[in-house]
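User: Sequence for mitogen-activated protein kinase kinase below. Tokens please.
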Amino acid sequence: FAITMDQLQLYEDLGKGNYGTVKKVLHKPTNVAMAMKEIRLELDQAKLNAIIMELDILHRAVAPEIVEFYGAFFIESCVYYCMEYMDAGSMDKLQTYGSDNPLLPSDSSPPDGEPAPFLRKRTGGVPEVVLARVVGSMTRGLGFLKDELQIIHRDVKPTNVLVNRRGQVKLCDFGVSGQLEKSLAKTNIGCQSYMAPERIRSESLHTSPTYTVSSDVWSLGLSTIEMALGHYPYPPETYSNVFAQLTAIVHGDPPELPDGFSDAAKDWVSRCMVKRAEDRASYQELLKHPFLQQDRTRTVDMVGWVARALENRDRMHKEKEDQNGSS
Ligand code: ADP
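Assistant: Structure tokens for mitogen-activated protein kinase kinase:
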């Protein structure tokens, strides 16, 4: 069946991406809650039609680690894309609130001149057992896209890893439509790069893109470190400036997992963060690695972890509001 706008009841915004907003909607005929992404494109009807047709392949992307696609349509120059609603949001936000480090007590007033507790730099991030579960899902999802659909994701980063309160972890936003990629490319100027060194090199030299599946493996490794730290891995002085950042990725040593993680975890990440694309691990190797094998035999309370991360988020938002209200 095809989804149309008049079947949808619109709810709140779930987030803003580089290309448009994502809204929660209810598909009235089926009573299914969905997330609807609006992508504004200045394209003619023929090109918009091509995009809708190319997106159709997504109906075949059915796997436990992939956000389900329900359908797409366009109105005027906007493409609307309906997908499974993931009620815990994306890992880029959860990683900040999902640390096992106890939060500072909210009622202790900070010493003079110090920022309020919720503004203090937190060293947290995702604990190792949760991290293994999350990146295991990501690796299986990426392997599925490659083996079953011959799709390279091209945009692996914590924002594109969605989670629900049942503890499921799924990938979204992968590149299936050549026309859509082409139309979006011009506006793609993210300030935190997850691009592999070979991709940065070929883009800066304007040579034909040397994008292979192993470029996604680099982005997977970088996302893993980011989730472990709770923030983007390259130091702030580097990521405040696009040129410095790209230089560091191409010429500097690759980032590593911090102390406190097991040797297996560190080794797994280092197999992703190999600067020579040809020497990087394959998905198969990554799945067989002890870091992900251990995960298979362990019980991890993902439901509890997600619930606590969301509670922390709500509490910190409330503290921030109270602080703003009282000052
Ligand atoms: P970007 O363009 O940066 O990849 P998106 O436009 O895909 O970002 O998404 C923006 C935000 O919307 C995400 O960070 C996430 O919090 C939220 N979001 C996206 N898709 C969904 C979904 N299916 N369910 C719930 N929230 C979502």
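Residues 14-19, 22, 35, 37, 67, 83-86, 89-90, 159-160, 162, 172-173 surround adenosine-5'-diphosphate (CB under 6 Å).
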